[in-house]
Amino acid sequence: MDMNIASLIKRRLPETYDLHRQYVNPQFVRVLEVIGYNRNYCSAQGAKLIDEKGREVLDFLAGFGVFNIGRNHPVVARALQDMLHCSGPNLVQMDVGVISGLLAEALARIAPGDLDAVFFTNSGTEGVEGALKFARQATGKHKVVYCKRAFHGLTLGALSVNGNEEFRTRNEPLLPGCIQVPFNDLEALKAALSGRDVAAFIAEPIQGKGVFVPDDAYFPGVRRLCDKYGALFIADEVQTGFGRTGRMFAINHWDVVPDLMVVSKALSGGYIPLGAIITRRAIHSKVFDCMDRCFAHSNTFGQNDLAMAAGLATLHVIEEEKLIERSARMGAYLMSGLNELAGRYELLHQIRGKGLMIGMQFGAPESLALRTGWKLLHKMNEELFCQMITIPLLEKHHVLTQVAGHGLDTVKILPPLVIDTADADRFLEAMDTVLKDAHKFPGSAWTTVTKLGLRTAKTA
Fold this sequence. Notes:
The mean pLDDT is 95. The protein has helices at residues 5-12, 16-23, 26-34, 62-65, 74-86, 98-110, 124-139, 156-159, 165-168, 186-193, 218-229, 281-287, 305-320, 323-344, 368-380, 387-395, 421-438, 444-459; strands spanning 41-45, 48-51, 56-59, 117-121, 143-147, 178-181, 198-203, 232-236, 260-263, 275-279, 348-354, 357-362, 399-400, 402-403, 410-413. It contains 18 helices and 15 strands. The longest helix is centred in the last third of the chain and has 22 residues, at 323-344. The two termini are 45 Å apart. The protein is α/β, with parallel strands linked by helices. 43% of the residues lie in helices and 15% in strands.
């Protein structure tokens, strides 16, 4: 039987949402249909998606930060094809492969400071799970400190250090000994660590939920406190890594070296699930401390050849195309444009971020009419307002964005690092139009989102 994937996809594409409704996640299908995101995308390249109607969509979501080098990059595609044609001895398990050694070497070369021991994973959340285990085993302690609004994944251990109640609910009891502190609060962290019984403090250098950027003194202070009280510092760079913030890793902005660093998302160029824990050899050696413990932590697919090839090719692209510098440059361009809009539109209060990880914070306006609309909408549903921005961006301007988190009134953009000024200008022009419509109350934008709230309430 001839298995032609391209033909199969083309033939069954019209059934996409029915298939997911029946076999995968019907509630997610409902969400996409309610907010008008239920498009069938047929192809993609760089920062653009093409849907079944031939419409070009500017992708400012990038798979939640997976596609730093853009979608379907030919260099990574060629590396994968070459690896397939090698007919190599993949996943022998009772061996070590050269290509995983090469990728580990490359990661150690770009990691901060003396982080030179690498453990490969299949995802960010798996990396967090492993880092928590490494910290507990290396220190002999079990407590972990994490931040409010932190997002580190949704498996049980990662969820135990997740600072968002909407994800934690229905899952208690979680791991014991996990202590929450506010982000960007050194005094609270000091109090949590002062008992000297904490294995690790885990944090995102820039929080993904809301795009919260710490004060410049925060992470240097974190490093000093962890050293003083004998706790390890785990930097979760799953979303912020590989040029996203205008540096190779976001923690580089503060010249701080963590004890363990978790990476994933953009590492494979979006082709293959891939992640890694990068740590000091001294910490790694406390986990894998004898031959009997050579499998003290392991997985089946972590070092698969396709993922390793994709990782090497992706790092090559980031360097060759100078995407870190491009991220810093284009991020500054977008931030400047968005700050100009914030100066003209009273609903847009603040622009936060670094590089191409940017949050647009909305808030209560001063004018009476708009303030009335704001209060009514938030009384109906605290999650609704940002849909007034994201829905028309996609529906009318074909720009894909996301709401940054529950109850935050923040819209987030994570464009691929390959965008140019034409892409940025297209986004800024779309935002200008959407904001202009949102500042007309009563008006069609407010009516549309109010109807959305009523529809959601009826179908809940």
